[in-house]
Specification:
Largest sheet: 8 strands, mixed
Number of helices: 6
Bound molecules: zinc ion
Strand content: 25-35%
CATH topology: 2,3-Dihydroxybiphenyl 1,2-Dioxygenase, domain 1
Radius of gyration: 18 Å
Distance between the termini: 43 Å
Low-confidence stretches: none
CATH architecture: Roll
Order of helices and strands: EHEEEEHEEEEHEEEEHEEEHH
Mean pLDDT: 96
Strand order of the largest sheet: 2-3-4-1-13-16-15-14
Number of domains: 1
Helix content: 10-25%
């Protein structure tokens, strides 16, 4: 059976140390992998997620020490939202005040209470009170009480010139279906996905095209159980939409192909296997700098070039 939903979200950040403090300490996510950008090993690639680094909970960053701020626009992810237990809303509102996190007043969307906030780079995020999430395990970071901890992704919102072409790809390739519309947003939901099962499509005019930079989402990755399922999705993309994906790249923790969806957002298809425990023990995830084999012989040079995290 096809496994649906978001696998991970990858964004661009400013200084790595600030990024780690915000997501690891303030937001209470687990740093599940500390590695480098495989295309530029002088910069980090930091992966945050739940205790196991499960698909549907993974938010990753390329932190650049001197990045220019991005500009939100058409063909980009506007917001990335996490699930929290309803009883945690008051805790998070108070925590954002205490920690000086920019946030909005809670609002209702599709019948759920949403607390929108921004990270230090201006990336747009939200916490959504999600029924049932209180029964899912949370990560204990030693500071955020487990009962209030973030429980993986709720959704992403894509800012598009029109919703229909993107909706067609989501439904015919990734197993999503439209479940509602509200205030100009089309909600697409993947059957069976608990974490990261929602993509909201906001059709808007009057925006310039996006300019990537600090606080921008770089791409959204969708789940494929294995190489065969990924190949089937690539075939469907070509046959039904005339879209060509890249060749497969080995990302060590998953295997990926990329394509630009009709609305301009960069999509990836990532395999669930092998996962983050492939190169370090599950109870030690994120502690040591992990390098792919092609960079291991340059470890000394790479470690010296990376900025300090603590
Ligand atoms: Zn990715």
């Amino acid at each position: 059976m096809q496994i649906n939903g978001i696998h991970h979200v990858t964004a661009i950040a400013g200084p790595a140390r600030r990024n780690l403090d915000f997501y690891g300490r303030v937001l209470g996510l687990r740093l599940v992998k500390k590695t480098v950008n495989f295309d530029d090993p002088t910069t980090y690639h930091l992966y945050f997620g739940d205790a196991e680094g499960s698909p549907g909970t993974i938010l990753t960053f390329f932190p650049w020490e001197h990045v220019a701020a991005g500009r939100l626009g058409i063909g980009e992810t506007q917001e990335t939202a996490f699930r929290i237990p309803a009883a945690a809303l008051g805790y998070w509102t108070q925590r954002f005040v205490t920690e000086g996190v920019a946030h909005d007043a809670p609002e209702q969307r599709f019948g759920e209470t949403v607390l929108a906030f921004r990270d230090p780079d201006g990336m747009r995020l939200a916490l959504v009170a999600a029924p049932g999430s209180e029964n899912e395990p949370g990560w204990d970071n030693g500071e955020v009480p487990v009962e209030f901890a973030v429980r993986g992704f709720h959704s992403v919102t894509l800012l598009l010139a029109e919703a229909a072409p993107t909706a067609a790809v989501l439904s015919q390739v990734f197993g999503f279906a439209e479940v509602g519309q509200e205030n100009g947003v089309v909600r697409m939901q993947a059957t069976g996905a608990v974490h990261g099962g929602i993509v909201d499509l906001r059709a808007a005019s009057g925006f310039l095209p996006a300019r990537l930079g600090g606080g921008s989402v770089h791409h959204i990755a969708f789940r494929a159980a294995d190489d065969d399922e990924q190949a089937r999705m690539v075939k469907t993309l070509a046959e039904k939409f005339g879209l060509r994906a890249t060749g497969q790249r080995d990302r060590n923790y998953f295997r990926s192909v990329y394509f630009r969806e009709p609305g301009g957002v960069l999509f990836e298809i990532a395999t669930d296997a092998p996962g983050f425990a492939v190169d370090e023990a599950a109870d030690r995830l994120g502690r040591d700098l992990k390098l792919p084999p092609q960079y291991e012989k340059r470890r000394g040079e790479i470690e010296a070039a990376l900025p300090a995290l603590a």
